[in-house]
Amino acid sequence: MSKSFDVVVIGAGPGGYVAAIRAAQLGFSTACIDENKSAAGKPALGGTCLNVGCIPSKALLESSEQFHKIQHEAEVHGISVSGASVDVPKMIARKRKIVDQFTGGITMLFKKNKVTSLHGHGKILKRENEKWLIEVAGDAAEVVEAKHVIIASGSKPRYIPGIDVDNVDILDNVGALELQAVPKRLGVIGAGVIGLEMGSVWKRLGAEVTVLEAMPSFLAAADDEVSKLALRIFTKDLGLDIQTGVKIGEVKKSKKGISINYTDAAGAAQALEVDKLIVAVGRVPNTDGIAAPEVGLRFDQRGFIEVDGHCHTGIPNIWAVGDVVRGPMLAHKASEEGVAVAERIAGQKPHLDFNTVPWVIYTAPEIAWVGKTEQQLKAEGVEYKKGSFPFAANGRAHSLNAAQGFVKMLADAKTDRILGVHIVGPVAGELISEAVVAMEFAASSEDIARIIHAHPSLAEVMHEAALGCDKRAIHN
Ligand code: FAD
Ligand code: NAD
């Protein structure tokens, strides 16, 4: 007889493993199926995020930033350092250790919460007697049954036809996080989040980095003032060569490296020679073999599983969360959807507001935002007021030698309700939490303005931006 569960989750990334733990906490017998294996061939839970995404990229961003600071900023503090060098294999080994620690942590959490972990490819076969039958095709193939199925199969890199990613010379996120030496010349196709984070890592470690972006604008999803300043800092200070408005042509590998033919923004033919090339042009939903056709899953034009506002697919008791469905491809969005689905299965009424999902880009300085950009508010005809305050006028930022950037707050002109907050600056990814909390509680800019912020702290910049919405910033 097949094993029977209340809930079976397919995929153990931040959407799936969190959904499984929450379902188990709520008293459901739960299994989580995942097919991922580590480079050593062992089952590795945690999905893209823990294995080849958020966690390893942040480990390398931190290591490379430390090196950059030692080389370029120690002097400012009166500290002389000579002969600083990088041991890339050691840096990569540290990253792997962190990844192993975290993926192993999910195994422990599953044990603690009594989630059954099944290794293999999960495929929904059919429904019999109000139960879904799910095949687990792994070392030992089996079929399990479940009352509810949560699909959390995530995403995979999007490729450009004609550019063969081999993860030796032409790399996606997996290869970009595993280089064993600093390439002399690195090309990056796509100036999105991965392109900027990975480009920063290898630039700080000494590579010449050229980023080729198809869109005429830079970081179009961010607030215009943020993307303008970020572009200036990344090109002038960090030294990334970012070219927008390009059209990629033929990409050829030879003994000398990789040559990329492209047309620049002015329409002129260009050629770039590099030693390694990262392709980071977005990700696509991963739905390979997820369900038999007769299950009836529906997909939108871009291949995402169709769901309603509660992540229900419209097929009885089949749900889908995370990167495989619409919305931002972010780990925290995936996890919160997973929690919400488990709670909905338990009869609760959870609520998620996509307008308060924070975005963070872990460059230096960091970029973070929540809510609407100024250009969105203009396009929607919303009357707003704005307060903006520079880190250059903040004592803590100067003590950190990180006084670039600003916090900008946008609030409704009539009600004063905060509509968006945009940050370029030190630890923007941490500072944004205050704005997220405020927006979740429908706070006004005056609410933030009246809160006592510690001195000296970076959070004072948020405080001053809020004061600025009423033109009463003190230090500007
Ligand atoms: P995934 O994490 O993709 O997990 C899906 C899992 O399901 C995988 O383990 C996969 O092997 C498994 N699977 C798929 N199909 C099946 C099947 N049929 N049977 C069994 N198993 C299956 N987001 C952030 O919020 N912050 C960041 O800093 C950040 N950095 C990133 C850096 C990089 C380089 C990349 C690539 C992504 C980053 N992301 C970041 C995005 C983040 O990784 C994803 O949004 C998140 O992992 C999505 O979670 P998920 O659970 O939906 O899917
Ligand atoms: P992205 O969507 O952020 O950026 C892709 C970029 O490639 C875009 O600017 C796009 O215009 C460009 N592009 C597309 N086709 C192109 C072409 N043919 N030639 C040149 N440029 C082209 O995607 P990504 O950087 O691959 O990252 C994927 C997703 O992973 C992100 O959307 C994000 O959700 C997630 N992620 C998040 C973080 C974070 O939260 N810090 C970090 C990394 C990745």
For the structure shown, list the relevant keywords.
seven-stranded mixed sheet, alpha/beta, Enolase-like, domain 1, binds flavin-adenine dinucleotide, five-stranded parallel sheet, FAD/NAD(P)-binding domain, binds nicotinamide-adenine-dinucleotide, 31% helix, 13 helices, 476 residues
| Class based on secondary structure composition and strand pairing | alpha/beta
Give the overall shape.
globular
The top-level CATH class of the largest domain is Alpha Beta
CATH architecture of the largest domain: 3-Layer(bba) Sandwich
How many beta-strand elements? 22
The percentage helix is 25-40%
Distance between the termini: 72 Å
The CATH topology of the largest domain: FAD/NAD(P)-binding domain
Provide the domain count.
3
Stretches with pLDDT under 50, minimum 5 residues: none
Oligomer: single chain
Query: Main sheet, how many strands, which sense, barrel?
Result: 7 strands, mixed
Q: Helical region count? A: 13
What percentage of amino acids are in beta strands?
25-35%
CATH superfamily of the largest domain: FAD/NAD(P)-binding domain
Radius of gyration: 24 Å
- What is the mean pLDDT? 97
| Distinct ligand kinds | flavin-adenine dinucleotide, nicotinamide-adenine-dinucleotide
